[in-house]
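ESCALATION

Customer reports they have been waiting on this structure for their group meeting. Please prioritize. Original submission:
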Amino acid sequence: MSTISKKPWRRRLGFTLAIAILAAWICYVAVFVYRLNYGGGEVLTPEVQQLASQELQEEWFTIYQHGNRTGYSHTEIRPRPEGYALTEELFLRLDFLGDIQDLFTRVQAKLEPDFSLKSFTFRLQAGPIYYNLSGGIKDGSLLLVSQMAGQERSQQLPLSHPIYLGSGMKSFIAQQRLREGNTYRLALFDPSTLSQTMVPLRVEAKETIQIGSRNLEAYRVVLEFHGVKLRTWVSPYGEVLKEEGFLGLTMVRSDRKDALAGFAEATAAELVREAAVVPDRTIARPRLLRSLRLQLTGITGEGWDLAGGRQQLSEGELLIVREVLPQISSVQIPLSTAEMARDLQSSLLIQSDEPILKEQAAAIVGEEKDALRAVELISSWVYHNLEKRPTLSIPNALGVYKMRAGDCNEHSVLFAALARSVGIPTRITVGLLYTKGRFYYHAWNEVYVGEWVAVDSLLNQVPADPTHVRLITGELDRQVLLVRALGRLGIKVIDYE
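Update from on-call: job pushed to the front of the queue and completed.
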Protein backbone atom coordinates (compact mmCIF):
# COMPACT_ATOMS: atom_id res chain seq x y z
CA MET A 1 0.00 0.00 0.00
CA SER A 2 1.32 3.44 -0.94
CA THR A 3 1.85 5.92 1.84
CA ILE A 4 -0.09 9.14 1.78
CA SER A 5 1.91 12.29 1.17
CA LYS A 6 2.42 14.47 4.24
CA LYS A 7 2.00 17.63 2.19
CA PRO A 8 -1.19 19.63 2.80
CA TRP A 9 -3.85 18.08 0.58
CA ARG A 10 -4.92 21.52 -0.58
CA ARG A 11 -1.78 21.51 -2.72
CA ARG A 12 -3.40 18.86 -4.84
CA LEU A 13 -6.32 21.11 -5.68
CA GLY A 14 -6.59 23.14 -8.83
CA PHE A 15 -4.95 20.72 -11.22
CA THR A 16 -8.18 20.33 -13.17
CA LEU A 17 -8.03 24.03 -13.93
CA ALA A 18 -4.35 23.77 -14.75
CA ILE A 19 -5.11 21.08 -17.32
CA ALA A 20 -7.88 23.23 -18.78
CA ILE A 21 -5.67 26.32 -18.89
CA LEU A 22 -2.78 24.45 -20.46
CA ALA A 23 -5.09 22.73 -22.90
CA ALA A 24 -6.46 26.10 -23.92
CA TRP A 25 -2.94 27.59 -24.08
CA ILE A 26 -1.68 24.67 -26.18
CA CYS A 27 -4.82 25.05 -28.26
CA TYR A 28 -3.92 28.71 -28.75
CA VAL A 29 -0.30 27.98 -29.62
CA ALA A 30 -0.54 24.58 -31.32
CA VAL A 31 -4.12 24.49 -32.47
CA PHE A 32 -5.69 22.84 -35.49
CA VAL A 33 -7.55 25.27 -37.67
CA TYR A 34 -10.03 25.44 -40.49
CA ARG A 35 -10.54 28.71 -42.26
CA LEU A 36 -13.91 29.76 -43.73
CA ASN A 37 -14.43 32.71 -46.07
CA TYR A 38 -16.60 34.71 -43.69
CA GLY A 39 -17.54 38.32 -43.18
CA GLY A 40 -15.28 39.80 -45.85
CA GLY A 41 -12.25 37.64 -45.18
CA GLU A 42 -9.59 37.44 -47.86
CA VAL A 43 -9.27 34.20 -49.84
CA LEU A 44 -5.80 32.68 -49.75
CA THR A 45 -4.67 32.51 -53.37
CA PRO A 46 -2.48 29.78 -54.92
CA GLU A 47 0.08 32.46 -55.81
CA VAL A 48 0.51 33.46 -52.17
CA GLN A 49 0.74 29.80 -51.13
CA GLN A 50 3.43 29.17 -53.73
CA LEU A 51 5.38 32.20 -52.53
CA ALA A 52 5.23 31.00 -48.94
CA SER A 53 6.39 27.53 -49.90
CA GLN A 54 9.79 28.73 -51.12
CA GLU A 55 11.38 29.41 -47.73
CA LEU A 56 11.72 28.08 -44.21
CA GLN A 57 9.41 29.67 -41.65
CA GLU A 58 10.80 29.76 -38.11
CA GLU A 59 9.54 31.54 -34.98
CA TRP A 60 10.82 31.83 -31.41
CA PHE A 61 8.72 33.26 -28.58
CA THR A 62 9.51 33.96 -24.95
CA ILE A 63 6.65 33.23 -22.55
CA TYR A 64 6.04 35.51 -19.57
CA GLN A 65 3.59 35.68 -16.70
CA HIS A 66 3.13 39.21 -15.40
CA GLY A 67 6.52 40.16 -16.82
CA ASN A 68 8.43 37.16 -15.45
CA ARG A 69 10.06 34.77 -17.92
CA THR A 70 8.48 31.32 -17.55
CA GLY A 71 9.07 29.45 -20.82
CA TYR A 72 9.38 29.54 -24.59
CA SER A 73 7.76 28.39 -27.82
CA HIS A 74 9.52 27.42 -31.06
CA THR A 75 8.01 26.62 -34.46
CA GLU A 76 9.52 25.51 -37.77
CA ILE A 77 7.72 24.90 -41.07
CA ARG A 78 9.94 23.34 -43.74
CA PRO A 79 8.87 23.03 -47.39
CA ARG A 80 8.79 19.53 -48.85
CA PRO A 81 7.90 18.33 -52.37
CA GLU A 82 4.65 16.86 -51.04
CA GLY A 83 3.81 19.80 -48.78
CA TYR A 84 5.37 20.86 -45.47
CA ALA A 85 6.98 19.38 -42.36
CA LEU A 86 6.12 21.20 -39.14
CA THR A 87 7.70 21.04 -35.68
CA GLU A 88 6.38 23.00 -32.71
CA GLU A 89 7.72 22.94 -29.14
CA LEU A 90 6.42 24.56 -25.97
CA PHE A 91 8.11 24.75 -22.55
CA LEU A 92 6.52 26.12 -19.38
CA ARG A 93 7.77 26.13 -15.79
CA LEU A 94 4.76 26.03 -13.46
CA ASP A 95 4.27 26.58 -9.74
CA PHE A 96 1.35 24.72 -8.18
CA LEU A 97 1.22 26.11 -4.64
CA GLY A 98 4.90 25.43 -4.08
CA ASP A 99 5.27 22.34 -6.28
CA ILE A 100 7.45 23.31 -9.27
CA GLN A 101 6.93 21.29 -12.45
CA ASP A 102 8.28 21.67 -15.97
CA LEU A 103 5.92 21.04 -18.87
CA PHE A 104 7.19 20.25 -22.37
CA THR A 105 5.04 19.62 -25.44
CA ARG A 106 6.15 18.76 -28.96
CA VAL A 107 4.08 18.54 -32.14
CA GLN A 108 5.46 17.13 -35.39
CA ALA A 109 3.27 17.08 -38.45
CA LYS A 110 3.12 16.51 -42.19
CA LEU A 111 1.02 19.09 -44.01
CA GLU A 112 -0.53 19.14 -47.46
CA PRO A 113 0.53 21.87 -49.95
CA ASP A 114 -2.43 23.99 -48.74
CA PHE A 115 -1.20 23.63 -45.10
CA SER A 116 -4.01 21.21 -44.19
CA LEU A 117 -3.10 18.36 -41.88
CA LYS A 118 -1.96 15.01 -43.24
CA SER A 119 -0.62 13.39 -40.04
CA PHE A 120 0.85 14.39 -36.68
CA THR A 121 2.43 13.23 -33.43
CA PHE A 122 1.92 15.03 -30.11
CA ARG A 123 3.91 14.48 -26.91
CA LEU A 124 3.34 16.03 -23.51
CA GLN A 125 5.91 15.45 -20.78
CA ALA A 126 6.04 16.66 -17.18
CA GLY A 127 8.87 15.04 -15.24
CA PRO A 128 8.56 11.27 -15.56
CA ILE A 129 4.97 11.53 -16.81
CA TYR A 130 4.35 11.55 -20.54
CA TYR A 131 1.44 11.30 -22.97
CA ASN A 132 1.78 10.47 -26.66
CA LEU A 133 -0.89 10.95 -29.32
CA SER A 134 -0.60 10.44 -33.07
CA GLY A 135 -3.13 10.82 -35.82
CA GLY A 136 -3.74 10.91 -39.53
CA ILE A 137 -6.47 11.82 -41.98
CA LYS A 138 -8.19 8.89 -43.69
CA ASP A 139 -11.50 8.77 -45.55
CA GLY A 140 -12.81 11.99 -44.05
CA SER A 141 -11.94 11.09 -40.46
CA LEU A 142 -9.09 11.76 -38.06
CA LEU A 143 -7.77 8.44 -36.75
CA LEU A 144 -6.11 8.92 -33.36
CA VAL A 145 -3.78 6.52 -31.55
CA SER A 146 -2.74 7.26 -27.97
CA GLN A 147 0.10 5.68 -26.02
CA MET A 148 -0.35 5.65 -22.26
CA ALA A 149 1.13 3.35 -19.64
CA GLY A 150 2.61 1.11 -22.33
CA GLN A 151 -0.78 0.57 -23.99
CA GLU A 152 -2.13 1.78 -27.33
CA ARG A 153 -5.74 2.82 -27.82
CA SER A 154 -7.40 4.26 -30.89
CA GLN A 155 -10.29 6.59 -31.57
CA GLN A 156 -11.83 7.94 -34.76
CA LEU A 157 -13.19 11.48 -35.07
CA PRO A 158 -15.33 12.32 -38.11
CA LEU A 159 -14.41 15.56 -39.89
CA SER A 160 -16.69 17.78 -41.93
CA HIS A 161 -13.82 19.82 -43.36
CA PRO A 162 -10.00 19.94 -43.55
CA ILE A 163 -8.11 20.83 -40.36
CA TYR A 164 -4.99 22.93 -39.96
CA LEU A 165 -2.29 23.25 -37.32
CA GLY A 166 -1.99 26.42 -35.27
CA SER A 167 1.20 27.27 -37.07
CA GLY A 168 -0.83 26.84 -40.21
CA MET A 169 -3.14 29.44 -38.70
CA LYS A 170 -0.20 31.77 -38.22
CA SER A 171 0.87 31.12 -41.81
CA PHE A 172 -2.70 31.80 -42.86
CA ILE A 173 -2.74 35.11 -41.00
CA ALA A 174 0.66 36.02 -42.39
CA GLN A 175 -0.59 35.53 -45.94
CA GLN A 176 -3.69 37.69 -45.55
CA ARG A 177 -4.05 41.30 -46.53
CA LEU A 178 -5.13 42.27 -43.04
CA ARG A 179 -7.62 45.10 -42.79
CA GLU A 180 -9.48 46.45 -39.79
CA GLY A 181 -12.86 44.74 -39.55
CA ASN A 182 -11.90 41.55 -41.38
CA THR A 183 -13.63 38.57 -39.73
CA TYR A 184 -13.01 34.83 -40.01
CA ARG A 185 -14.17 31.65 -38.32
CA LEU A 186 -11.85 28.85 -37.21
CA ALA A 187 -12.55 25.25 -36.23
CA LEU A 188 -10.06 24.37 -33.53
CA PHE A 189 -8.96 20.90 -32.47
CA ASP A 190 -6.83 20.50 -29.35
CA PRO A 191 -4.77 17.27 -29.15
CA SER A 192 -4.44 17.52 -25.38
CA THR A 193 -8.21 17.32 -24.82
CA LEU A 194 -9.46 15.86 -28.14
CA SER A 195 -11.92 18.76 -28.28
CA GLN A 196 -13.19 20.71 -31.26
CA THR A 197 -14.89 24.09 -31.29
CA MET A 198 -15.68 26.88 -33.72
CA VAL A 199 -14.29 30.28 -32.79
CA PRO A 200 -14.54 33.73 -34.40
CA LEU A 201 -11.47 35.80 -35.27
CA ARG A 202 -11.57 39.54 -35.95
CA VAL A 203 -8.98 42.12 -37.02
CA GLU A 204 -9.80 44.93 -34.57
CA ALA A 205 -7.32 47.74 -35.15
CA LYS A 206 -3.88 48.79 -36.29
CA GLU A 207 -1.74 50.17 -33.46
CA THR A 208 1.81 50.61 -32.18
CA ILE A 209 3.17 48.11 -29.64
CA GLN A 210 6.51 47.82 -27.88
CA ILE A 211 8.61 44.68 -28.43
CA GLY A 212 11.81 44.99 -26.42
CA SER A 213 13.21 48.43 -27.18
CA ARG A 214 11.36 48.78 -30.47
CA ASN A 215 8.01 50.37 -31.24
CA LEU A 216 6.33 48.42 -34.04
CA GLU A 217 3.11 48.80 -35.99
CA ALA A 218 0.81 45.80 -35.74
CA TYR A 219 -2.73 44.65 -36.33
CA ARG A 220 -4.56 43.53 -33.20
CA VAL A 221 -6.36 40.28 -33.98
CA VAL A 222 -8.83 38.91 -31.41
CA LEU A 223 -9.80 35.24 -31.21
CA GLU A 224 -12.68 34.30 -28.92
CA PHE A 225 -12.17 30.90 -27.30
CA HIS A 226 -15.18 29.69 -25.27
CA GLY A 227 -16.09 33.28 -24.49
CA VAL A 228 -12.54 34.28 -23.53
CA LYS A 229 -10.83 36.84 -25.75
CA LEU A 230 -7.25 36.01 -26.76
CA ARG A 231 -5.24 38.70 -28.53
CA THR A 232 -2.53 38.44 -31.18
CA TRP A 233 -0.56 41.30 -32.72
CA VAL A 234 0.58 40.78 -36.33
CA SER A 235 2.94 43.06 -38.25
CA PRO A 236 1.96 44.39 -41.70
CA TYR A 237 4.51 41.87 -43.05
CA GLY A 238 2.69 38.92 -41.50
CA GLU A 239 4.95 38.35 -38.47
CA VAL A 240 3.19 37.35 -35.26
CA LEU A 241 4.74 39.71 -32.68
CA LYS A 242 2.87 39.04 -29.48
CA GLU A 243 0.11 36.83 -28.05
CA GLU A 244 -1.85 37.19 -24.81
CA GLY A 245 -3.33 34.14 -23.11
CA PHE A 246 -4.78 33.28 -19.69
CA LEU A 247 -3.87 34.43 -16.17
CA GLY A 248 -1.22 36.87 -17.27
CA LEU A 249 0.51 34.48 -19.69
CA THR A 250 1.99 36.32 -22.68
CA MET A 251 4.19 35.24 -25.60
CA VAL A 252 6.52 37.80 -27.18
CA ARG A 253 8.43 37.27 -30.41
CA SER A 254 12.17 36.86 -29.88
CA ASP A 255 15.06 34.84 -31.28
CA ARG A 256 16.65 31.54 -30.26
CA LYS A 257 19.28 33.14 -28.02
CA ASP A 258 16.80 35.29 -26.13
CA ALA A 259 14.10 32.61 -25.86
CA LEU A 260 16.52 30.09 -24.35
CA ALA A 261 18.37 32.61 -22.18
CA GLY A 262 17.92 31.97 -18.49
CA PHE A 263 16.24 28.65 -19.25
CA ALA A 264 17.50 27.05 -16.04
CA GLU A 265 16.50 30.06 -13.92
CA ALA A 266 13.05 30.56 -15.44
CA THR A 267 10.45 31.75 -12.95
CA ALA A 268 7.63 29.28 -12.37
CA ALA A 269 4.22 30.58 -13.45
CA GLU A 270 1.64 30.48 -10.65
CA LEU A 271 -1.68 29.34 -12.09
CA VAL A 272 -3.63 27.55 -9.38
CA ARG A 273 -3.63 30.15 -6.59
CA GLU A 274 -4.10 33.03 -9.01
CA ALA A 275 -7.16 31.34 -10.51
CA ALA A 276 -8.71 30.44 -7.13
CA VAL A 277 -11.87 32.31 -6.18
CA VAL A 278 -11.96 34.18 -2.86
CA PRO A 279 -15.53 34.40 -1.50
CA ASP A 280 -16.89 37.33 0.48
CA ARG A 281 -16.55 35.46 3.79
CA THR A 282 -14.99 32.31 5.18
CA ILE A 283 -16.75 28.98 5.74
CA ALA A 284 -16.26 27.16 9.04
CA ARG A 285 -15.76 23.37 9.12
CA PRO A 286 -16.40 22.91 5.37
CA ARG A 287 -15.91 19.11 5.40
CA LEU A 288 -18.79 18.68 7.88
CA LEU A 289 -21.45 20.85 6.22
CA ARG A 290 -24.90 19.56 5.30
CA SER A 291 -25.82 22.40 2.94
CA LEU A 292 -24.37 25.52 1.35
CA ARG A 293 -26.12 28.41 -0.38
CA LEU A 294 -24.08 30.61 -2.73
CA GLN A 295 -24.56 33.40 -5.21
CA LEU A 296 -22.40 33.00 -8.30
CA THR A 297 -21.63 35.94 -10.55
CA GLY A 298 -19.64 36.41 -13.72
CA ILE A 299 -20.41 33.14 -15.52
CA THR A 300 -22.92 33.26 -18.34
CA GLY A 301 -23.82 31.33 -21.46
CA GLU A 302 -24.65 27.71 -22.11
CA GLY A 303 -22.74 24.57 -21.24
CA TRP A 304 -22.65 24.85 -17.45
CA ASP A 305 -23.98 21.97 -15.33
CA LEU A 306 -24.97 24.01 -12.30
CA ALA A 307 -28.47 22.59 -11.78
CA GLY A 308 -29.42 18.98 -11.19
CA GLY A 309 -29.25 16.37 -8.49
CA ARG A 310 -28.05 17.86 -5.22
CA GLN A 311 -27.56 21.32 -6.79
CA GLN A 312 -30.58 23.59 -7.15
CA LEU A 313 -30.31 26.89 -9.03
CA SER A 314 -32.97 29.55 -8.53
CA GLU A 315 -32.82 33.26 -9.34
CA GLY A 316 -29.05 33.34 -9.26
CA GLU A 317 -28.73 31.43 -5.99
CA LEU A 318 -27.17 27.97 -5.91
CA LEU A 319 -28.18 25.59 -3.11
CA ILE A 320 -26.04 22.48 -2.61
CA VAL A 321 -27.43 19.84 -0.25
CA ARG A 322 -25.33 16.89 0.85
CA GLU A 323 -26.97 13.56 0.10
CA VAL A 324 -28.30 11.54 3.06
CA LEU A 325 -27.21 7.96 2.40
CA PRO A 326 -29.77 6.17 4.61
CA GLN A 327 -32.54 7.77 2.54
CA ILE A 328 -31.20 6.29 -0.71
CA SER A 329 -32.69 3.02 -1.90
CA SER A 330 -29.51 1.56 -3.35
CA VAL A 331 -29.66 -0.54 -6.52
CA GLN A 332 -27.90 -3.81 -7.31
CA ILE A 333 -24.89 -4.06 -9.60
CA PRO A 334 -24.07 -4.46 -12.37
CA LEU A 335 -26.41 -1.93 -13.97
CA SER A 336 -26.80 -2.16 -17.72
CA THR A 337 -29.41 0.07 -19.33
CA ALA A 338 -29.47 2.13 -22.51
CA GLU A 339 -30.09 5.25 -20.42
CA MET A 340 -26.87 4.70 -18.47
CA ALA A 341 -24.74 3.41 -21.36
CA ARG A 342 -22.74 6.62 -21.72
CA ASP A 343 -21.74 6.57 -18.06
CA LEU A 344 -20.74 2.90 -18.19
CA GLN A 345 -18.65 2.81 -21.35
CA SER A 346 -14.88 2.70 -21.62
CA SER A 347 -13.13 5.69 -23.20
CA LEU A 348 -9.68 6.76 -24.31
CA LEU A 349 -8.78 7.97 -20.81
CA ILE A 350 -11.19 5.94 -18.66
CA GLN A 351 -10.23 2.42 -19.75
CA SER A 352 -12.83 0.47 -17.78
CA ASP A 353 -12.57 -2.45 -20.22
CA GLU A 354 -8.89 -3.09 -19.44
CA PRO A 355 -8.54 -6.59 -17.90
CA ILE A 356 -6.16 -5.44 -15.16
CA LEU A 357 -8.61 -2.74 -14.01
CA LYS A 358 -11.58 -5.10 -14.20
CA GLU A 359 -9.72 -7.66 -12.11
CA GLN A 360 -8.76 -5.05 -9.51
CA ALA A 361 -12.31 -3.70 -9.27
CA ALA A 362 -13.71 -7.22 -8.87
CA ALA A 363 -11.21 -7.88 -6.09
CA ILE A 364 -12.19 -4.63 -4.33
CA VAL A 365 -15.96 -5.22 -4.30
CA GLY A 366 -15.80 -9.01 -3.91
CA GLU A 367 -19.31 -10.46 -3.62
CA GLU A 368 -20.86 -7.08 -2.81
CA LYS A 369 -23.88 -6.33 -5.05
CA ASP A 370 -25.16 -3.22 -3.28
CA ALA A 371 -24.12 -0.27 -5.47
CA LEU A 372 -23.64 2.21 -2.62
CA ARG A 373 -21.54 -0.17 -0.57
CA ALA A 374 -19.44 -0.98 -3.66
CA VAL A 375 -18.86 2.74 -4.21
CA GLU A 376 -17.62 3.11 -0.64
CA LEU A 377 -15.24 0.17 -1.10
CA ILE A 378 -13.81 1.57 -4.35
CA SER A 379 -13.42 5.09 -2.95
CA SER A 380 -11.60 3.75 0.09
CA TRP A 381 -9.27 1.64 -2.05
CA VAL A 382 -8.39 4.56 -4.35
CA TYR A 383 -7.84 6.86 -1.37
CA HIS A 384 -5.53 4.45 0.44
CA ASN A 385 -3.58 3.20 -2.59
CA LEU A 386 -2.77 6.44 -4.42
CA GLU A 387 -0.01 8.68 -3.13
CA LYS A 388 -1.32 12.23 -2.96
CA ARG A 389 1.13 13.90 -5.34
CA PRO A 390 0.64 16.85 -7.71
CA THR A 391 0.84 15.48 -11.25
CA LEU A 392 0.72 17.61 -14.38
CA SER A 393 -0.37 15.21 -17.10
CA ILE A 394 -3.23 14.07 -19.28
CA PRO A 395 -4.78 11.74 -16.68
CA ASN A 396 -5.72 8.21 -17.73
CA ALA A 397 -6.95 5.41 -15.52
CA LEU A 398 -4.51 2.70 -16.61
CA GLY A 399 -1.50 4.96 -16.17
CA VAL A 400 -2.70 6.08 -12.75
CA TYR A 401 -3.23 2.48 -11.66
CA LYS A 402 0.34 1.59 -12.61
CA MET A 403 1.87 4.77 -11.16
CA ARG A 404 -0.24 4.71 -7.97
CA ALA A 405 0.02 8.47 -7.50
CA GLY A 406 -1.70 11.66 -8.54
CA ASP A 407 -3.96 14.55 -7.69
CA CYS A 408 -7.71 15.04 -8.04
CA ASN A 409 -7.69 14.29 -11.79
CA GLU A 410 -5.88 10.99 -11.34
CA HIS A 411 -8.14 9.95 -8.46
CA SER A 412 -11.29 10.75 -10.44
CA VAL A 413 -10.33 8.89 -13.64
CA LEU A 414 -9.17 5.77 -11.78
CA PHE A 415 -12.27 5.76 -9.59
CA ALA A 416 -14.44 6.14 -12.70
CA ALA A 417 -12.75 3.23 -14.50
CA LEU A 418 -12.98 0.89 -11.50
CA ALA A 419 -16.61 1.79 -10.78
CA ARG A 420 -17.71 1.49 -14.41
CA SER A 421 -15.99 -1.87 -14.76
CA VAL A 422 -18.30 -3.39 -12.12
CA GLY A 423 -21.42 -1.80 -13.60
CA ILE A 424 -21.76 1.43 -11.62
CA PRO A 425 -22.66 4.43 -13.84
CA THR A 426 -20.00 7.05 -13.11
CA ARG A 427 -19.28 10.58 -14.27
CA ILE A 428 -16.35 12.94 -13.84
CA THR A 429 -17.36 16.27 -12.36
CA VAL A 430 -15.25 19.42 -12.30
CA GLY A 431 -15.80 22.63 -10.43
CA LEU A 432 -14.67 24.19 -7.16
CA LEU A 433 -13.76 22.96 -3.68
CA TYR A 434 -13.45 25.27 -0.68
CA THR A 435 -10.41 25.10 1.59
CA LYS A 436 -8.53 27.66 3.70
CA GLY A 437 -10.49 30.69 2.55
CA ARG A 438 -10.54 30.01 -1.20
CA PHE A 439 -12.45 27.97 -3.75
CA TYR A 440 -9.92 25.99 -5.79
CA TYR A 441 -10.67 24.23 -9.06
CA HIS A 442 -11.09 20.51 -8.47
CA ALA A 443 -12.31 17.19 -9.95
CA TRP A 444 -14.39 14.44 -8.37
CA ASN A 445 -17.07 11.92 -9.40
CA GLU A 446 -20.80 11.32 -9.43
CA VAL A 447 -22.17 7.78 -9.25
CA TYR A 448 -25.65 6.38 -9.81
CA VAL A 449 -26.70 4.15 -6.91
CA GLY A 450 -30.47 4.68 -7.19
CA GLU A 451 -29.87 8.41 -7.47
CA TRP A 452 -26.78 10.41 -8.38
CA VAL A 453 -24.36 10.88 -5.47
CA ALA A 454 -21.18 13.00 -5.37
CA VAL A 455 -18.01 11.10 -4.41
CA ASP A 456 -14.52 12.49 -3.79
CA SER A 457 -11.95 9.69 -3.54
CA LEU A 458 -9.13 12.21 -2.97
CA LEU A 459 -10.76 12.93 0.41
CA ASN A 460 -12.54 9.56 0.67
CA GLN A 461 -15.88 11.35 1.02
CA VAL A 462 -19.07 9.42 0.20
CA PRO A 463 -21.00 11.65 -0.24
CA ALA A 464 -18.76 14.66 -0.94
CA ASP A 465 -19.33 17.73 1.22
CA PRO A 466 -21.42 20.61 -0.23
CA THR A 467 -18.42 22.91 -0.77
CA HIS A 468 -17.89 20.81 -3.91
CA VAL A 469 -19.50 23.18 -6.43
CA ARG A 470 -20.19 21.40 -9.72
CA LEU A 471 -19.65 23.54 -12.82
CA ILE A 472 -19.20 20.96 -15.59
CA THR A 473 -19.71 17.23 -16.03
CA GLY A 474 -17.60 15.30 -18.54
CA GLU A 475 -14.10 14.41 -19.65
CA LEU A 476 -11.32 16.72 -20.88
CA ASP A 477 -13.20 17.84 -23.99
CA ARG A 478 -15.81 19.36 -21.64
CA GLN A 479 -13.44 20.44 -18.88
CA VAL A 480 -11.66 22.91 -21.13
CA LEU A 481 -14.82 25.05 -20.80
CA LEU A 482 -13.59 26.02 -17.33
CA VAL A 483 -11.50 28.73 -18.98
CA ARG A 484 -14.71 30.75 -19.32
CA ALA A 485 -14.73 31.23 -15.55
CA LEU A 486 -11.18 32.59 -15.31
CA GLY A 487 -11.10 36.03 -13.78
CA ARG A 488 -14.87 36.28 -14.05
CA LEU A 489 -16.35 34.03 -11.40
CA GLY A 490 -17.34 35.65 -8.13
CA ILE A 491 -18.81 33.87 -5.08
CA LYS A 492 -20.94 35.26 -2.27
CA VAL A 493 -21.64 32.94 0.66
CA ILE A 494 -25.29 33.40 1.64
CA ASP A 495 -25.54 30.77 4.37
CA TYR A 496 -24.50 27.26 5.35
CA GLU A 497 -25.16 24.62 7.97
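Sent to customer with the following note: The first helix runs from residue 15 to 29.
Escalation resolved.
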